[in-house]
Predict the structure.
Amino acid sequence: MSDDRSSGASGIILSFLMGGLTGAALAILFAPRSGKETRELLGDKIREGQEKGRDLRERAASKGRELIEDATDYVERAKEGVDKRKDRLSAAVEAGRQAYRDEKEKM
């Protein structure tokens, strides 16, 4: 379920960025500049957009790795806690059995 929300959010962000880039490109194309100046400006803006997109992707990937590492650590700690409780429960059950045997022998 969280995958649906995160992919939906990234889709909205991507749509917003693409709309912004499209609007910027149209504004540049209709600006009163020569064709060469417009192409250079448009190329610069596209490169800036690509750099921002790469940076955003890298930050998202880094955050994803951090979340996976945190989840893995949490699962490992939970397993350790379960193992400790299981050992204590086994020891308590065995102590109870031994106490029962001792009482049974006294009778």
The CA atoms of residues 50 and 56 lie 10 Å apart. The chain has two helices and no strands. The first helix runs from residue 2 to 29.
